[in-house]
Automatic annotation (TrEMBL):
This is Cysteine-rich receptor-like protein kinase 29. It comes from Solanum verrucosum. Residues 25-127, 135-243 form the Gnk2-homologous domain. It is a single-pass membrane protein. GO terms for cellular component: plasma membrane. Keywords: ATP-binding, Glycoprotein, Kinase, Membrane, Nucleotide-binding, Phosphoprotein, Receptor, Repeat, Serine/threonine-protein kinase, Signal, Transferase, Transmembrane, Transmembrane helix. The keyword Glycoprotein applies. It is found in: Membrane. PANTHER family: CYSTEINE-RICH RECEPTOR-LIKE PROTEIN KINASE 10 ISOFORM X1, RECEPTOR-LIKE SERINE/THREONINE-PROTEIN KINASE SD1-8. GO terms for biological process: response to oxidative stress. Gene3D superfamilies: Gnk2 domain, C-X8-C-X2-C motif (3.30.430.20), Phosphorylase Kinase, domain 1 (3.30.200.20), Transferase(Phosphotransferase) domain 1 (1.10.510.10).
Length: 664
């Protein structure tokens, strides 16, 4: 059994690493400054038409460009997916990027953005494909951990990147992409990929990648175990684990649109092995391998069922006879379908990690929010019902109330109370709406969130760790009271449990505690860390994300620690609050508490009960926060940096997509 568990762990480890490469684990976006458009303008209509059509026209190599309109109403767009991403996944990524960009840049005529899998750019300039000068905007991402023997690591990395660049440049007009690996110091394998948009000439692709490589000395990713630099027309990434799939080159299908192959001819073919001995050898290798994989999958299914059975027993043991009430919470599918007008786009409120959310109106006039879970969630009916019943029993004014559920074939629906003011991030990170959040309202929101978490951690029947606490998962009711939502990633503990471990890390990049993101260890202190990040965002009005753009590090936590050390924490305060009647002393005290929550040493963080006491008592003495471990992100610039009113420290935006990472 020990050997089987080891094989299962190895298989799942490789599987998760493969999944990591497929997921949108980073996000970047930028709104251009080359003019604005109005809501009902011809440009707006052309932009909508372009964005709607782009994903469906992407070729098998993950690339497409197009232009629509004339003169000042002309809009051009270009999309590129990572070379190893499957077509359907590519199209899904581009669709999501398009939806996000028009929301984040609601009036700007040009924008660029995307995820780890894809990038999208549109502009009102001349057709992007005809632009001779390459855009210089770059986005930097990196892994916090340092590589062993950084100088030797950087030397091997440089050789690998140059080799891949030369291969990508000669990749042909359909895909200028290359991936590979090299052996670094201490026999550590370095994996990397590089890519250009295939419309670039070999000379321009070479120049684009060379220029990107040249920015590495200015990027904190140098000497780290992983990093990536993303530009509009080329990008590269490296890690110490395999994050890409092998791409087999094949000739393009006949009749390709010239927009997918601007120049040149494609002459690469797949060699055919005709040696019978080689065929036999391949069969000898593949058959046992497939057998072992099938065996491992079967073992995985058995273990998963056992784990689910334990979860059911745990919930039933807590709720007792209440489990029989589950049917009273069940809605008929036809009622929900009618309430949401057959899940029409007009009623769509947003898209979460587990599926879309719709507004609905029941026969009695009650307004509800309906989350339509993805069909491939893999959860059984009994577990789903039991978890629904548990969440339905959570009654607190600062938690969104679950009214019921629906099970119909593959359909799994959750019905929540409707909260009219949407999520906190839609107010906090919008320049106009943020003005509605004076200090009285912000402090009220912070206190309400803290009370909701205290209930989950200490006062509910089971200790519940949310694991995805962020501004997008805090809803605001008509009186702007906060309500914590989305328990799709929550973990249940019995009251005597204090810590757990997982190989499947879920959450949102930028909010996850370091011990959780790196080692898979989570506890109530993981939520405390996320709460601290959220408090800093509420006070500053800025997002937190670990990235760098240009000459400045865009990381709210690093700026916060820097200003703490320099005794200039007032620089963190949103300019909209500085001139208000709100007491600066109270605001600085809240910053102090937030820093206590984001300390990297878990034992030094307070629990949420202590945090709530600190927030409510001005006379209580606060300990001094320490960032004991070297900061994950170093800040380059003036020690007295302040947060600009017009430029977000984290212009990459809030990451709504769920991240699944493997601890390393």
């Amino acid at each position: 059994m020990a050997i089987q568990k080891w094989l299962l762990f190895l298989f799942l480890h490789l599987l998760v690493l493969n999944i990591v490469a497929q997921l949108s684990d980073v996000r970047f976006d930028e709104c251009g400054k080359n003019g604005n458009y109005t809501e009902n303008s011809t440009y707006k209509n052309n932009l909508n038409t372009l964005l709607t059509s782009l994903s469906s026209k992407i070729n098998n190599y993950g690339f497409y460009y197009d232009s629509i309109g004339q003169s000042t109403d002309k809009v051009s767009g270009i999309v590129l997916c990572r070379g190893d991403v499957e077509l359907e996944q590519c199209r899904s990524c581009v669709n999501k990027a398009a939806q996000e960009l028009v929301q984040l840049c609601p009036t700007q005529k040009e924008a660029i953005g995307g995820y780890g899998e894809c990038s999208l750019q549109y502009s009102n300039n001349q057709s992007i494909i005809e632009t001779t000068s390459l855009p210089s905007v770059l986005y930097f991402f990196w892994t916090p951990a340092n590589a062993s023997k950084p100088e030797e690591f950087n030397q091997e990395l440089s050789k690998l990147l140059e080799d891949l660049r030369d291969r990508a440049v000669n990749g042909g007009p359909f895909r200028k992409y290359a991936s590979g690996y090299a052996t670094g110091p201490d026999d550590q394998t370095i994996y990397a990929l590089v890519q250009c948009t295939p419309d670039l000439s070999p000379q321009n692709c070479l120049k684009c990648l060379t220029d990107a490589y040249g920015t590495m000395p200015r990027c904190p990713c140098l000497g780290k175990r992983g990093g990536r630099i993303i530009g509009p027309r080329c990008n590269f990434r490296y890690e110490i684990y395999k994050f890409f799939d092998v791409v087999l080159e094949s000739p393009p299908p006949a009749g390709n649109d010239d927009k997918t192959a601007p120049t040149g001819n494609y002459n690469k073919t797949v060699p055919i092995v005709e040696d019978d001995k080689k065929d036999s050898l391949i069969i000898i290798i593949i058959v046992p391998t497939v057998t072992v994989v099938i065996l491992i999958v079967c073992i995985s299914v058995i273990l998963t069922k056992k784990q689910k059975k334990k979860l059911v027993d745990k919930i039933q043991g807590t709720l007792g006879d209440d489990i029989s009430d589950v049917e009273s919470l069940q809605y008929d599918f036809s009622i929900i379908r009618e309430a949401t007008d057959n899940f029409s786009n007009a009623n769509k409120l947003g898209q979460g990690g587990f599926g879309p959310v719709y507004k609905g109106k029941l026969h009695n006039g009650q307004e509800v929010s309906v989350k339509r879970l993805s069909a491939d969630s893999g959860q059984g009916d009994l577990e789903f019902k039991n978890e629904v019943l548990l969440v339905a029993r959570l009654q607190h004014r600062n938690l969104v109330r679950l009214l019921g559920f629906c099970l119909d074939g593959t359909e799994r629906l959750l019905v929540y109370e409707f909260v009219p003011n949407a999520s906190l991030d839609q107010f906090l990170f919008d320049q106009a709406k943020r003005s509605q959040l004076d200090w009285e309202r912000r402090s009220k929101i912070i206190g309400g969130i803290a009370r909701g978490i205290v209930y989950l951690h200490e006062d509910s029947r089971l200790r519940i760790i949310h694991r995805d606490l962020k501004a997008g998962n805090v809803l605001l009711d008509a009186e702007m009271n906060p309500k914590i939502a989305d328990f799709g990633m929550a973990r249940l503990f019995t009251l005597d449990e204090t810590q757990g471990n997982t190989n499947r890390i879920v959450g949102t990049y930028g909010y996850m505690a370091p011990e959780y993101a790196m080692q898979g260890q989570f506890s109530v202190k993981s939520d405390v860390y996320s709460f601290g990040v959220l408090v800093l965002e509420i006070i500053s009005g800025q997002r937190n994300i670990c990235s760098r753009k240009g000459d400045s590090v865009e990381d709210l936590l690093s700026v916060a620690w820097l200003n703490w050390r320099e005794e200039t924490v007032s620089n963190l305060i949103d300019p909209m609050l500085r001139g208000s009647s709100g007491p600066i002393g109270d605001i600085i005290r809240y910053i102090h508490i937030a820093l206590l929550c984001i300390q990297e040493t878990v034992a030094n963080r307070p629990n949420m009960g202590e945090v709530l006491l600190m927030l409510s008592s001005r006379s209580l003495s606060l300990p001094v926060p320490h960032n004991e471990v070297n900061p994950q992100i170093l800040h380059f610039g003036d020690a007295n940096s302040t947060i600009s009113e017009n430029k977000s420290i984290c212009s990459s935006g809030n990451q709504d997509l769920i991240t699944e990472l493997h601890p390393r």
